[in-house]
Amino acid sequence: MPVELKGSCHCGAVIYSVLSSTPVPYQLCFCSICRKTGGVGGSINVGAHSKSLKIEGKENLSVYHAVLNRGTPEEKRASSERNFCKLCGSMLWLYDKHWPELIHPFASSIDSPDLVPPKQMVCIKLDSKPDYVRLPEGDKEQYDDYGELSLEEWHRKAGLYME
Question: Structural domain boundaries of the chain?
Answer without folding.
Answer: 3-158
